[in-house]
Backbone:
């Protein structure tokens, strides 16, 4: 506890508060102390490495909030929480940016510029925006070790990656293959399936149906394609052997297509005959284009059998171009078909197609369609909207090329991947079997090699003479096998490592393959490569692996989450992580997804500099982490800023009175205080909050944890407890009485606990408040609170009391009686819980509703009910007994009312009745009274007040109105609450009668030294009471 008195709080200025706290943390080295703590148990966290060659954005803030929240929580729970930052340095993200900077358009330009110079430019650009990342990291209070990060381009890191590649190679899971792969023609490299998954877009293409005339037959086969440019490479047509195909007559010509599509495509056509697909297999046809006639090594242009052919769309006849499609390529291998590829490495037509030479494949579609139309070889064309893959870094449409590449045989370990996925706790849970699980079940071999320059080199050397291969797994192996002298500190990047040659056993020379690897492999190696495992730090790696927790955005289910899982399963037969929280999308205030194209992206600094980082962090926690969250000033004002202001106002209220009384919490002990019921309640409620927040943090339900805290601060603390104890703090004595001391110590306990619960969510405001109540160095070095005694019965009864207050307030408003005007009695009827509440908390109810007494009645005279059954709900349940059930409800309105108001099923005259079966409850109220029913959880009751007030009550009402108007004027004149005034009132009979009884009350409550009565008071300050004008004023 603080050993000096609590200081008064300033105005709530989040930006100023946060900047001061940042200075405090720097000066005290608080973050370093959380990173360097030596504790027995470790909570292991793995940071997903961003690329620092572009500035951070709001979506980076989102998952960093979740990560920081979890790490802070576990540190406060007593764990050591090592938090190493990481930077992803290789790959297309860096290369594409450097190409733009140097005005290089393709790989040829890079080679002319010089690979060595290009690689150095890449290396130098990696940390272009590192200062912006560091600055944002500090400003949002994301505590992570930036001084000792893992860096994927470091030689130690690369060496660990090489080790893992050799392990995979030795297991027989790394192979070179010739197959169709997704290929970026601009970047000049194949991509992996998880990279392709990052870049799909909805596009509208022109699709065509073309006739291919059969040889020695009198019909043409109709083929359909969404990629007209591939028609020049057509070498076969595929049909489903079990499908019925129709020979139709259309516009004087005979065509063949799937029978069930014939009517849809050609409604006016005549079906001449039907044949099975298998009967068409082997039919030869004339090619659409002649560019490859006489130039292919294998027979082409015939119908083949294809089980993959469907009749959902198109014509049921698939055009086959093995050079440009996975199914096509596989069909080509099975049917010994040739490859016809007229494109170069840039995806442009070569001189083999003179009329399209130099045109990019996708751009050639309109020209090809025109050629088909002019030659009479186009039956139909129509727009077709579908998903098409684009390069995830340069935004170029991908092509599917048959080419050589190195692959990891993921298809062989699919079952193991699925099995290990079952051991991971996913948030949300449906990702396990859904988005991630389905991706694993359909996992393809990982296209690993990249025909690029800046990346981890694939450490495979091949003999130029005999074709022998050698895989290197360490720098030591590299040096031992190298011909000639190689610097032991050699840079393991291209082009330097390319210069290292090996001597083959056959006497030939071995050269390294000209590839780097997929940069996603680099980041997927972070669990072990950050430790330079297995070359050092083996114990540290084993202590942390598998990692307890990771979190990134939803797109990483097919990115980093996937590569981590594949590599860990192959190398260690374990999942890489135990728990994964998937971040959702960010939306703008209007609920639209944030994107550059919509120009609705918010710079996080705009928010930090206006509402502060605490508000931004809380907004991220206002909904489930995996759900989309609205973000903008409007949504911040709606969801979290009211909470922060209410918290600050409660703290400011408490600190103000403590400062006035020079109260020092450290001089007292809560255990020695005599608690009133409202004190016991707020502490019980606080203990319940500790339990609920802790339970939800354990389940990664940060949104529910925050909602619990929000409800406690706004409803329990601000709107109820402070209202209940305000009068205790108003007492003016030189010595602090027991009631005030108890209140201060209860509030101290509330804020000391609250700030620890809030520390992971709102680290700045939690620190600011905590340091004013405590001499601790930082709230972030404190332990997580444990729940005290949870008196659920008291919590329930206080909830009922609040509902009684709401119902009583409604009755007052209905009767036109202001809350500050006293009433003679408040009558309540209800169930057993309501009865106990009235017995135990009658004083609380009496004070808050300003009534002279609270009466609990078993039944209220003159009050009756009518219950109206809902036959739509009753009929299906009770059938032939529906009328009897309805009659039971009608004849037992009291029982029906309890069921309806409690929302809980009950029994009436032997019928099990649900609340939905009761359409409405009508209350018949006697004249001159106001009535309001209420419910609280399963408790229900009715509040009842008289609308008439006697003369005694009216005198007190006048005193209350006078006090309220004086206090309002004090506030207008900006008087301090403790400043004394001299009060003047224009007298009349009502005032004179009232002062006899309430003069001392008025003097005390408005801080007046005296009251002067005058016959005439010239003032603009007056109010109306019962039709009479009451002028008043004061001096100070």
Residues:
């Amino acid at each position: 506890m603080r050993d000096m008195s609590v200081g008064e709080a300033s105005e709530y200025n989040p930006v100023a508060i946060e900047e001061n706290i940042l200075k405090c943390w720097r000066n005290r080295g608080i973050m370093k102390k959380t990173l360097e703590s030596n504790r027995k148990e470790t909570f292991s966290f793995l940071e997903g490495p961003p690329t620092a060659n572009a500035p951070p954005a709001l979506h980076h803030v989102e998952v960093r909030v979740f990560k920081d929240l979890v790490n802070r929580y576990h540190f406060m729970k007593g764990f050591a929480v090592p938090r190493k930052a990481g930077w992803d340095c290789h790959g297309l993200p860096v290369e594409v940016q450097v190409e733009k900077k140097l005005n290089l358009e393709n790989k040829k330009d890079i080679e002319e510029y010089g690979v060595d110079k290009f690689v150095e430019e890449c290396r130098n650009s990696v940390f272009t925006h590192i200062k912006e990342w560091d600055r944002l990291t500090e400003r949002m209070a994301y505590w992570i070790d930036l001084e000792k990060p893992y860096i994927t381009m470091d030689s130690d890191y690369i060496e660990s990656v090489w080790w893992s590649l050799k392990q995979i190679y030795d297991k027989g899971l790394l192979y070179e293959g010739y197959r169709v792969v997704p290929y970026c023609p601009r970047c000049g490299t194949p991509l992996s399936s998880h990279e392709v998954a990052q870049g799909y877009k909805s596009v509208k293409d022109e699709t065509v149906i073309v006739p291919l005339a059969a040889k020695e037959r009198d019909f043409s086969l109709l083929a359909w394609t969404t990629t007209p440019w591939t028609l020049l490479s057509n070498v076969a047509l595929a049909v489903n052997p079990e499908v019925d195909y129709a020979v139709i007559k259309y516009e004087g010509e005979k065509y063949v297509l799937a029978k069930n599509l014939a009517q849809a495509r050609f409604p006016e056509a005549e079906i001449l005959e039907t044949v099975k697909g298998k009967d068409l297999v082997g039919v030869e046809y004339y090619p659409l284009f002649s560019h490859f006639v006489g130039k292919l090594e294998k027979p082409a242009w015939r119908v083949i059998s294809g089980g993959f052919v469907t009749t959902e769309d198109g014509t049921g006849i698939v055009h086959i171009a093995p050079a440009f499609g996975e199914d096509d390529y596989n069909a080509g291998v099975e049917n010994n078909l040739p490859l016809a590829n007229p494109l170069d490495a840039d995806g442009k037509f070569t001189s083999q197609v003179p009329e399209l030479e130099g045109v990019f494949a996708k751009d050639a579609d309109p020209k090809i369609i025109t050629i088909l139309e002019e030659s009479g070889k186009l039956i139909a064309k129509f727009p077709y909207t579908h998903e098409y893959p684009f390069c995830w870094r340069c935004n170029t449409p991908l092509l599917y090329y048959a080419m050589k590449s190195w692959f990891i045989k993921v298809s062989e370990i699919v079952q193991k991947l699925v099995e290990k996925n079952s051991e991971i706790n996913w948030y949300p849970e449906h990702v396990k079997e859904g988005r991630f699980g389905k991706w694993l079940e359909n996992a393809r071999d990982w296209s690993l090699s990249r025909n690029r320059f800046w990346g981890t080199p694939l450490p495979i050397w091949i003999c130029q003479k005999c074709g022998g291969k050698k895989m290197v797994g360490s720098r030591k192996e590299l040096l031992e096998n190298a011909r000639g002298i190689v610097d032991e500190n050699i840079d393991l990047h291209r082009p330097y490592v390319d210069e290292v040659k090996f001597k083959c056993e056959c006497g030939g020379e071995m050269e390294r393959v000209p590839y780097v690897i997929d940069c996603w492999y680099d980041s997927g190696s972070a669990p072990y490569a950050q430790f330079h495992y297995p070359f050092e730090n083996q114990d540290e790696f084993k202590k942390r692996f598998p990692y307890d927790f990771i979190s990134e955005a939803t797109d990483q289910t097919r990115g980093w989450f996937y590569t981590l899982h594949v590599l860990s399963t192959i190398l260690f037969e374990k999942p890489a992580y135990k728990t994964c929280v998937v971040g959702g999308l960010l939306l703008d205030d209007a609920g639209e997804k944030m994107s550059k194209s919509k120009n609705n992206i918010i710079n996080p600094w705009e928010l930090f500099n206006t509402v502060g980082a605490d508000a931004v962090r809380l907004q991220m926690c206002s909904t489930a982490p995996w759900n989309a969250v609205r973000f903008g000033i409007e949504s911040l004002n709606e969801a979290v800023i009211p909470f922060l202001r209410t918290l600050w106002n409660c703290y400011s209220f408490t600190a103000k009175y403590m400062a006035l009384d020079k109260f020092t919490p450290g001089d007292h002990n809560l255990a020695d205080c005599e608690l009133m019921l409202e004190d016991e309640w707020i502490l019980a409620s606080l203990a319940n909050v500790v339990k609920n927040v802790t339970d939800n943090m354990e389940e990664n339900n940060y949104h529910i944890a925050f909602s619990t805290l929000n409800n406690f601060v706004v409803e329990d603390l601000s709107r109820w407890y402070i209202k209940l104890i305000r009068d205790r703090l108003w007492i003016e004595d030189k010595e602090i009485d027991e009631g005030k001391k108890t209140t201060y110590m209860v509030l101290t306990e509330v804020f000391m606990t609250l700030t620890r619960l809030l520390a992971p969510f709102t680290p700045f405001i939690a620190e600011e408040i905590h340091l004013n109540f405590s001499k601790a160095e930082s709230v972030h070095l404190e332990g997580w609170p444990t729940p005290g005694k949870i008196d659920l019965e008291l919590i329930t009864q206080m909830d009922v009391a609040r509902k009684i207050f709401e119902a009583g307030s409604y009755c007052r408003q209905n009767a036109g009686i202001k809350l500050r005007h006293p009433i003679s009695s408040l009558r309540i009827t209800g169930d057993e819980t309501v009865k106990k509440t009235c017995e135990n908390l009658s004083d609380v109810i009496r004070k808050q509703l300003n009534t002279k007494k609270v009466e609990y009645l078993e039944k209220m005279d003159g009050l009756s009910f009518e219950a109206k059954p809902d036959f739509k709900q009753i009929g299906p349940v009770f059938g032939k007994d529906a009328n009897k059930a309805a009659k039971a409800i009608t004849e037992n309105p009291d029982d029906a009312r309890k069921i309806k108001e409690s929302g809980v099923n009950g029994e009436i005259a032997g019928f099990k009745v649900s609340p939905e079966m009761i359409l409405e409850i009508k209350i018949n109220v006697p004249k001159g009274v106001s009535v309001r029913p209420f419910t609280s959880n399963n408790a229900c009751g009715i509040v009842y007040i008289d609308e008439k007030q006697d003369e005694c009550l009216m005198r007190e009402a006048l005193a209350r109105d006078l006090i309220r108007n004086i206090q309002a004027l004090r506030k207008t004149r900006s008087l301090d609450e403790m400043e004394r005034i001299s009060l003047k009132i224009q007298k009349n009979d009502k005032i004179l009668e009232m002062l006899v009884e309430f003069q001392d009350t008025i003097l005390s409550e408005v801080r007046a030294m005296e009251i002067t009565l005058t016959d005439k008071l010239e003032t603009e300050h007056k109010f109306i009471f019962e039709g009479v004008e009451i002028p008043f004023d004061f001096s100070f």
